[in-house]
Design a protein that fits this description.
2 copies of one chain form a homodimer. The first copy, chain A, is mostly beta strands and 164 residues long. In chain A, 5% of the residues lie in helices and 32% in strands. Chain A is built from 2 helices and 10 strands, in the order E-E-E-E-E-E-E-E-E-E-H-H. In chain A, the strands form 2 sheets. A 6-stranded antiparallel β-barrel of chain A has the order 3-4-9-8-5-10. A 3-stranded antiparallel sheet of chain A has the order 1-6-7, with no helix packed on it. In chain A, a hairpin with a 2-residue loop joins strand 8 and strand 9. Chains A and B meet through strand 2, strand 5, strand 7, strand 8 and strand 10 of A and strand 2, strand 5, strand 7, strand 8 and strand 10 of B. Strand 2 of chain A pairs antiparallel with strand 2 of chain B, so a sheet runs across the interface.
């Protein structure tokens, strides 16, 4: 193994990934945001009020029926620019080592991001939403209705985040 | 196309999927629940208080550092028993037609489920959690910390669900 295998920063740890994937995903559309480079992206999804657009491929558009009745949606998307082999990371803005599964970092075995967004409107298979922090052109994997009854936990705490 | 291509129920509509996937996912562990068949699963994730277990593969376990400080987690998992080509569906318990992206049905182009769970404890790479409704043996894709600041929206409404 080279130094690179252990990640770019001291305190990071990489693992050897399986030789082949277990299943395949389709990119069903693209997300368009104002941010062309990683350094321009807001720190997190509440860091900007920018209206972003989600363009669903023609083939899937019938699946949007009734989505316009939702105030909020869950979007899943593919963060294909990040390494997938890190299990311990030292994010620059925290400066401390954390496990990958305690972070929302794009670097993870399956680089699937989850964002809760507010729906502004839908026209011709294009959704206008607020609440994203990803790069322009990010591939879309899924759109789901956000149910407060199962998805909202106002009292949830991430203990390490309070301490850092 | 045969009738089967249009789904099992009247009012359902299927599309032709791309001939090959755009990216691959790794199954990073397995979820164990009391439910061995689809008919036994609770209707949704608040339908049972059963403690379920999430067994992470050895190779990724270092990634759990600090996860124990989280009260709630987002789990992503792969619902590999459902058809991926339906864009309009008529779920049995609603009896009305809805778009796939207005539903949390396992039938969707990328069968990735998202559940918010309460963490009970972690031991030897196995997480005990409450808030799942999936089949025993379901493949795990990701574990994320749940941040109330970005993930909790108590006022969110799914309009069609109120009406049905």
């Amino acid at each position: 193994m080279t130094t690179k295998d252990f990640g770019a920063r001291e305190g990071e740890q990489a693992v050897e990934l399986p030789t082949k994937p277990d299943a395949g995903v389709y990119f069903i559309g693209r997300i368009h945001t104002p941010w062309k480079e990683r350094k321009d992206c807001p720190r997190n999804a509440r860091g900007s009020d920018a209206v972003c657009t989600v363009v669903l491929d023609e083939r899937y558009r019938a699946g949007l029926k009734d989505v316009e009745t939702c105030t909020h949606l869950v979007l899943l998307y593919w963060m294909d620019k990040a390494p997938r082999n890190l299990v311990l990371q030292v994010p620059g803005h925290y400066g401390a080592q954390h496990g990958t599964f305690a972070l929302r970092s794009p670097a993870r075995p399956n680089p699937i991001a989850m964002s809760v967004v507010r729906l502004i409107g839908i026209e011709d298979g294009t959704l206008s939403v607020v609440g994203l922090d990803c790069l322009d052109g990010t591939p879309l994997l899924d759109i789901k209705p956000y149910f407060a009854s199962t998805d909202s936990v106002p009292e949830a705490v991430v203990g390490w985040h309070r301490r850092d």
